Automatic annotation (TrEMBL):
<dbReference type="InterPro" id="IPR032675">
    <property type="entry name" value="LRR_dom_sf"/>
</dbReference>
<dbReference type="InterPro" id="IPR036047">
    <property type="entry name" value="F-box-like_dom_sf"/>
</dbReference>
<dbReference type="InterPro" id="IPR001810">
    <property type="entry name" value="F-box_dom"/>
</dbReference>
<dbReference type="Pfam" id="PF12937">
    <property type="entry name" value="F-box-like"/>
</dbReference>
<protein>
    <recommendedName>
        <fullName>F-box domain-containing protein</fullName>
    </recommendedName>
</protein>
<feature type="domain" description="F-box">
    <location>
        <begin position="12"/>
        <end position="51"/>
    </location>
</feature>
């Protein structure tokens, strides 16, 4: 970017600030404008993962590894496959994790423990449903 440009949208600081307030759909559209915009909007795209909305199980592993470090909030984690996606994505800065499962299989617990160990310095909130 040209530092002498008078276009405020060419300033990374402005783009990062805008990325905090756009919808996911708008962030994806903005990321497609150019490389500079992609760099500023990719964290907004990957910030929150809701397994009821996002079908990450089918996402390419390379894409997950490239952008997984942007994931901060995970919602509706219901099955072992969801935990495995997070582990494969290298998500290591989770702040909030919302489980929506009553699964207590040893496999689920082991993967969940691995995920918590990886995120133990950044996790602020874990919501786990109470058993009926």
């Amino acid at each position: 970017m040209d530092p002498t440009s008078s276009n405020p949208l060419e300033l990374p600081e402005i783009l990062r600030e805008i990325s905090r307030f756009v919808t996911l759909r708008d962030a994806v559209a903005c990321a497609q404008v150019c490389k500079a915009w992609t760099d500023n909007f990719v964290s907004a795209i990957w910030h929150t993962i809701d397994f009821d909305v996002h079908k990450l199980i089918k996402v390419d592993l390379m894409v997950l590894k490239k952008h997984g470090h942007h994931i901060r909030v995970v919602k509706n984690t219901k099955q072992v496959d969801h935990i495995l996606v997070l582990l494969k994505s290298n998500a290591s800065k989770l702040r909030r994790l919302y489980l929506n499962t009553t699964t207590s299989s040893p496999e689920f617990q082991a993967y969940f423990y691995d995920l918590m160990r990886r995120n133990n310095t950044t996790i602020e909130h874990i919501e786990i449903p109470q058993n009926p």
